[in-house]
Design brief:
The protein is α+β, with helices and mostly antiparallel strands.
Amino acid sequence: MRAQFVLSEIGVGLRRNLTMTFAVVVSVALSLALFGGSLLMRDQVSVMKGYWYDKVNVSIFLCNKSDGASDPKCPKGAVTAEQRNQIETELKKMPVVDKVSYETSDEAYKHYKEQFGDSPLASSLTPDQMQESFRIKLKDPEKYQIIATAFDGRDGVQSVQDQKGILENLFGLLNVMNWAAIAVMSLMLVVALMLIVNTVRVSAFSRRRETGIMRLVGASGFYIQAPFIMEAAVAGLIGGGVACAFLVIGRYFFIDHGLALSEKLNLINFIGWDAVLTKLPLILATSVLMPSLAAFFALRKYLKV
């Protein structure tokens, strides 16, 4: 009987404040969709870092015949065979180095033609103008500075470049976007909480006569509060369900089908469905717990039960 009464009061409250209930659902849905999106963005950045950092190399470019007085880093001209062999020997002895591969100027020219053959500059280049280089695979990509300190500025070395530095700009941009999503999510969350509190108070005010009678006949505080808290929880749960639908549809449309980014951007290792599905229970739990707590504390002060 009591359960039936609570359920009937929930339905009455939701219908009586239909406009505000709709506003709560929308605000909760948007804020939790942004919350889930920020979590997925963080996972995506982590996956991309693990994928790309495992593939980046440190490159040591050697001086070639065209270097000399025009390049202050190669005042003695092209690298000698002795200098090249010494660099390779030292690299292979370093504990941070996993693998060393040598690329001749002819191989560098061939790779350049394969990648930029349509460029006007490609027709004017010759193999002698291309630099020999060592491509170093590190056991830990974060220890690039050890290679740079050991070889930058040495005779025969034109420059030491870390490909990880190129990726840092991309990951920095993604992190900024993630923080922007969190900021908007926080704002929407505050708006949702304010709407929940106002909706509960309006509902309690419109039923102040019923709650007064219940208080006079000795109903417990929880019994009086339960319908209002459940109303907020149901509205929040609907919003959470909509947020989950946004995330699932977004993953399906943007990555798998529709835009099909997984096919168009083969170089990016996108997060899988498991990352999305593991976030849905958290979003649903938050969508119920957040409105319930907001309603509980609002009612304690308003009803004084």
